Structures are given as C-alpha cells and as structure tokens.
Amino acid sequence: MKLLGVIAILIVMSVSLNAQTKNYLNESKEEYQRRMEWFTDSKYGMFIHFGLYSQLGGIYKGNESGRYAEWIQANQQIPKSDYIKLIDTWAPEKFNANKIVKLAKKAGMEYIVITTKHHEGFCLWDSDYTEYDIAGSPMKGRDFIKELSESCKKHKIRFGTYYSIIDWNHPSHDIPDSDAKEVTRKRWQNPRFNNGKKEEYVQYMKNQIKELIEKYDTDILWFDGDWASYWTTEDGNDLYQYIRELKPEIIINNRVSKREIFKKDFGTPEQFHPDGTLDYYWEACYTMNDSWGFKIKDTDWKRPEEVYEKLKDINKKGGNFLLNVGPDGNGEIPDASVDILLKVGKMLKR
Description:
Shape: globular
CATH architecture: Alpha-Beta Barrel
CATH class: Alpha Beta
CATH topology: TIM Barrel
Structural class: alpha/beta
Number of domains: 1
Radius of gyration: 21 Å
Largest sheet: 7 strands, parallel
CATH superfamily: Glycosidases
Distance between the termini: 70 Å
Strand order of the largest sheet: 7-6-3-2-1-9-8
C-alpha cells in the first residue's frame, strides 16, 4: 500500500511538472484555433489611446509640432523632469467607463483595448510597482482599468489591455535631456538601457502584466514598442510563455516579440491593411482622424462611409478592425468620434 501511495504521488508530481513546463509557443493547431475563436468571431473593436498626453491635446507651451499627440514628449524633446509634472494636472473627471462601453456596443463593436501604459510610462491603474500612476494624480481613488474591465463584463464586451515595451519614465531607460548632444526623436524610439538594468525592467514589466491579468482578467494583451533594439525574439518568447502560464486562454498580439517575424497570436498592420487574405490571424488598427492620442487641432476625420467600407473590406479578407478613439483631457471621447461611430453602427444594422 505504501509503495502504491508513493507511485501515486510521483505520478501527480510528474503531471504537475509537465503542466508547469508546457511550451505554449508550440500548442497544437486545434488548441490555437479554439483559443482564437471568440476573437475571429468579433471582427470589430475599439482602441482607446489615453494618458497624461491627453490633457495637452497635441500642444505643449504653444508648440504644436509632431503628428501623433501621444508621442508629444518625444516629438518636442520634453525632458523627463518637466514631463512628469503633467501628473499633477491630470484630472479627467468625466471619464465614464459605462458610457464608453455602451457607445462601443451601439457602434457594433465587440471588444475594447485601452492603453494601460503607453511609451510615456504612466499607468492608468493603481500599480504596486510604481508611483507614476493614477493613484499619484488628482484622480487618486479611481481605477480606470478596473472601471472599464467591470463595465465590459457587464455588457458582454471583451476587454483588452495595451502595454508598451518602451518606458521613457522608468529609471532603466536612458533618454537624454533637452540639452544633451544629438537629441533626436530616434533616441526616444530606440532608448538604451542603463548598465545592468534590463533584467530589472523585464521583471517590472512581468509584475505589471501579472497585475493586469489577475486584477482585471484581461482577455487580450496588446504590446507595442517591439522595435527597440534591446528587445529580442528571445525576450518576446520568454514573455509570451510567462503570460500564457498566468492565463493559458489569453490572446497576445505579435508585437510581444519582433512583429516582422513573429505572428502569434495575431498580426497587427497599422494604418493600412493587406490587399488579400493572409495565412495567419490579423487585426488592422486605424486612427479615426490622424492621431491616436487626443489632438485638438486634428480635424481630419474619416467619413462614416469610409470607416464602414474599411471594416467590410478588412473582414472580407479575414481580418479584424480595431478603430481608435482618443479621449480628451476631461476623459470624454470627442463628439466627432461619437458621431462617426454611431453612424457606422446604424450602417451595420442595416
């Protein structure tokens, strides 16, 4: 009897060890398709770019230079010591998760992805691993990611979280101040690590990603910033495996690694989409005007008919369409975006 007991324990330990060391990069085709089923059925989603930059509306101290408002720190070479002060004036009190989710639902969208941390490093949730987050702003006591996650579940909308691999605020990153030599936007696009700090930063990322999964049960992790030269395919594979171990059914975009080579779980063409079908899952993301983040002087809005035709063409070719909105400094989606979304929603119903 004792021998049988020992054998049973060894079998359980062996099964447990195998489960822990499963290679999620090599899952079967059937497992992969089953995990991706809801995503391929959803077709149309809302992208939300929101952060400290939203209160600026693309203008800093009278300077309007730069295409994308969420890149304003890099576009205008704003030193970290100045940029971090924006946290003191960031007070989007009108951010209303229920209103946003209901709008997405009315527009015919079936999932939402929000920028929990863009390249600027500011976090829209109260993270245990930084003070550069919503709890360090005048919005202390609110948790926008929790509010949006709960509202999505209530209205049966899938919830996704964008997370940047690049972090201009983290002490591991070497970003020159405005008086440094050879200061260009490229230095922000491709920051360097301070000596010996990569391991520390990767652990920081993993800690925060674990928060997003365990606190908010995110269905998608949407990465960006994979172009950084310090981020390798090995780093991407390791992070992918780590995330799938935390939540095996989660869906991860290909920018977790190098997007040119890595296509799991889905490809992410940006501001364009292919001429035909592809041999992998994909999602095209587009802005509704010209900028991802709120830009007060950007009135180059797409016509509802144009958005509708893009959606139909993307879906016909087997892709999903992720259409962006950029809430303003008050936390509200611009009226022009709301109008376009509702008109497209009516077209879809017809």
